[in-house]
Amino acid sequence: MGKIMVASSTMTIFILLVIVTITIPRTEAGIGEFDDFLKNQSQEAHKLVLDSYVPIPEEIADDLNVHVNLLMQQRNNTRRELAQKGKRKRGPCEATNPIDSCWRCQQNWAQNRFQLAKCGKGFGRRATGGLGGRIYVVTDPSDNDMVNPKVGTLRHAVIQKGPLWIIFQRSMIIRLNQELMVTSDKTIDGRGANVQVKDGAGITMQFVNNVIIHGLRMTNIRSKNGGMIRDSVDHVGIRTKSDGDAISIFGSSNIWIDHLSLSQCEDGLVDVIQGSTGVTISNCHMTKHNDVMLFGASDTYNGDKMMQVTVAFNHFGQGLIQRMPRCRFGFVHVLNNDYTHWQMYAIGGSAGPTILSQGNRFIAPFNTAAKEVTHRDYAAKGVWQNWQWTSEMDVFMNGATFTPSGSPINKSPLKKAFMMKPRHGSQASRLTRHSGALNCMVGRPC
What is the Cα–Cα distance from 363 to 104, expressed in whole angstroms? Predict the structure, then answer.
């Protein structure tokens, strides 16, 4: 019976998905002319979204918990061994969570950049980006031609066909004159350089699949008026005014955002909307911003029931106000993040999202009116009390409170290992210690 119910639910969502595929609101997409190329791209993207959807999302949450526990056990064993040998000093590299431990402390990381593609966890675990493709070196920080981008620029790199691993020749500041349209199967890898994307437009993934963005510093992203912009080698289209998001994920799947430093943008820091799924946002450091993350842009867009997002090992730092994240529909796993600042609330939502909060640390502000971690919009208590919002092993400090609702989120008994519990919220500061863009140097552990 359980399998029948899951299949029925998936089929219902599929039907809804087909309907919304036909009626995509182009104003929200920033599309000036929804031509045949974009219609085909949209349909292919939604097929990939359906393929990426996990009927039992708790399985992925449990899987990530396993890796966290294994890493912490290894760290504890290592500390005991060092103590027995009388060694007190730490090594030069400290990877404190299972994503970082997969690659960071390897001295030859720069010669083995593709290793990063094997390190994703959570719902965005399938993202391999440019794995297996050629390496493209960005040598020119300019962004002057939206239709025929100059060779060596980031804009030229992200529109190329096939898998591509994009790195940077040196540290640089990139001011995007219009939003940067990234195509499928790309990795933007800022390791080894101080790459700042600032004072211009942000990065957009629309109707694409399989993208990794890692190691960038993004600040003061502004709305731009739009115009003719090349979004692939084979297509140039009219874009309307952009929103001013640092990262915008629209109708896309298998996206991994890792080790970004984000602050002070005109709209959101990270938006996941319009039927996107299979997304992980990890190891990011976010500061000085109002509307931090938006998952699902409308209470009426049922296509976002497909949305599945992991938010793990991030530090929500100084100067943040709200939306960490703000969710509609979908399933959001919020794991081992450190919430040290907010002014209104930390996690909010409407339209019945499912939120599993595990092992986070929430430090409330001194404002007595803002102690509540959770915030629900546009629904009476008689409605939202049925939404599944669960807190497990979280730590609440300075009067912070989490209001749970709905029935408990069941864990699927797949294997014994998958039933291991997440790390306690008291470990959140350690797990997020190296959040944000890293200062990696070639030839040394990062």
Answer: 29
* Inter-residue contact 70 to 98 (CB < 8 Å): yes
ω into residue 98 within 30 of 0, thus cis?
A: no
Domains of the chain as residue ranges with CATH: 2-68+97-431 (2.160.20.10)
Q: At what angle do helices 36-52 and 2-22 cross, to 10 degrees?
A: 170
pTM for the whole structure: 0.86
Question: Which residue type sits at 328?
Answer: R
Token couple for 129: 């980006």
Helices (H), 53-114: 58-84
Which residues, including other chains, have CB under 8 Å from residue 369's CB and lie 6 or more apart? Answer: none
**Nearest 10 degrees: Cα torsion 51, 268, 401, 360:** 60
Please state the separation of Cα 44 from the chain's center in Å. Answer: 22
The size of the chain, in residues, is: 446
Q: Per-residue pLDDT tens for 283-323? A: 999 999 999 999 998 999 999 999 999 999 999 999 999 99
Give the model's pLDDT for residue 422.
77
Separation of CA 101 from chain center: 19
Among residues 155, 323, 328, 376, the one annotated as catalytic is 323
333: β partners: 310, 356
Alpha-carbon distances, residue 150 vs 116, 140, 145 (angstroms):
28, 9, 7
pLDDT in tens, 113-155: 999 999 999 999 999 999 999 999 999 999 999 999 999 999 9
**Tokens, residue 82:** 């060092």
> What token pair was written down for 263?
């602050």
C-alpha 259/C-alpha 215 separation (Å) is 5
Let me know: does 383 contact 416? Beta carbons within 8 Å: no
The yes-or-no verdict on residue 341 having pLDDT over 50 is yes
| 323 tagged catalytic | yes
